[in-house]
Amino acid sequence: MSAVEYRAILKYRLMITLFPADDPCPVCRKCCLDSFGEHAVHCKELPGFKYRHDLVRDVLYDVLKRAGISAKKEAPVNFLTDPLEGRSTLRPADILVFGWEGGKHAYVDLTGVSPLVGLRDHGFVAGQAIIKAEASKVAKHEKACIENQHVFVPFAFDTFGALAPDAVRFLKRVQQVVSSNTAHVKGQNYVFSRVGFAIQKGIAAQLVARLPAISL
Predict the structure, then answer these.
(1) What is the DSSP letter of 91?
(2) Tens-place pLDDT, residues 171-183
């Protein structure tokens, strides 16, 4: 991580102003770049919107590979088909882990959200954003996975680095495998540290790409 990226992510985490107030988003023109950078890391029309998601996926896949866990990125699945189009309506698995549980393959689906979703709403509860994101993924895909003899693993994280319960359980098991299969890896938090850094690295890169030159 470069010094500029480090400063950007530090300001983001501490909620220090990153952008001038009310500057319009240069791409979507629908919203303003809020001063704390939330729109900058979530605007779907900005180039590289998927960068953070793909970086975390790639790091997680690398961890699995180094641990000797058989897995595949962007693995095609055909659980759901549209009778009119005759094609899969369930996109490829972000990561498909072979023989993960009881001989069944695990369909790992990553999603990242802001921990500040609903901050202005009455009854806001910290940490609920990733819980809701996890529940949404389960409702959308778990039934199809179970019916096709697969295990569904929603991997929800927020931009401050928090992980939803299913993601924590998944990484704890991966950590156990890493610890038993890879003698050169030291420390009990190797897996969590790599994934956590990838999340922050992805966000930092997005923020730096949006910052005006004077802020760099």
Answers:
(1) P
(2) 999 988 887 776 6
